[in-house]
């Protein structure tokens, strides 16, 4: 059985809430709901675009630590708190996922704290793995 790896950003929320930023096992990586904090400064920008860029950077870093890349993302869930922010969020997502095109779901809902405007979680499947659309060799 493949080793299970827990990936952390070092965020105090992970330990306090009992979750990992990502869990990787075999050819799969599951990245938890990620909000727009800048973990270097532990600040939350006001701008939804900047929050979205921070989310993507945090997700990309967690995936990289697990040996994956954004190109491996096959599923994404996007949560925004304000319907009027969707075009800005979509524009930022399009820059990153425009050619990758994971299956996605957009939800409008409240988040844990009022300053959070966007939260994203993703599932990645390592490209080229058996069962990922390519036949086994042999």
UniProtKB/TrEMBL annotation:
Origin superkingdom: Bacteria
Pfam families with a match to the protein in the record: Ribonuc_L-PSP
Cross-referenced InterPro entries: RutC-like_sf, YjgF/YER057c/UK114
Cross-referenced PANTHER family: BLR7761 PROTEIN, YJGH FAMILY PROTEIN
Name of this chain's protein: RidA family protein
Lineage: Bacteria, Pseudomonadati, Pseudomonadota, Alphaproteobacteria, Hyphomicrobiales
């Amino acid at each position: 059985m493949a080793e299970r790896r827990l990936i952390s950003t070092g965020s105090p929320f992970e330990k306090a809430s009992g979750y990992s930023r990502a869990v990787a096992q075999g050819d799969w990586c599951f990245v938890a709901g990620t909000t727009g904090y800048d973990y270097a400064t532990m600040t939350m920008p006001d701008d939804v675009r900047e929050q979205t860029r921070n989310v993507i950077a945090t997700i990309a870093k967690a995936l990289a630590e697990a040996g994956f890349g954004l190109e491996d993302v096959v599923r994404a869930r996007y949560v925004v708190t304000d319907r009027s922010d969707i075009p800005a969020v979509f524009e930022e997502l399009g820059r990153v996922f425009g050619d990758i095109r994971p299956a996605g779901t957009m939800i409008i809902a409240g988040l844990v704290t009022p300053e959070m405007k966007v939260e994203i979680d993703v599932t990645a499947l390592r490209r080229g793995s058996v069962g990922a659309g390519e036949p086994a060799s042999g």
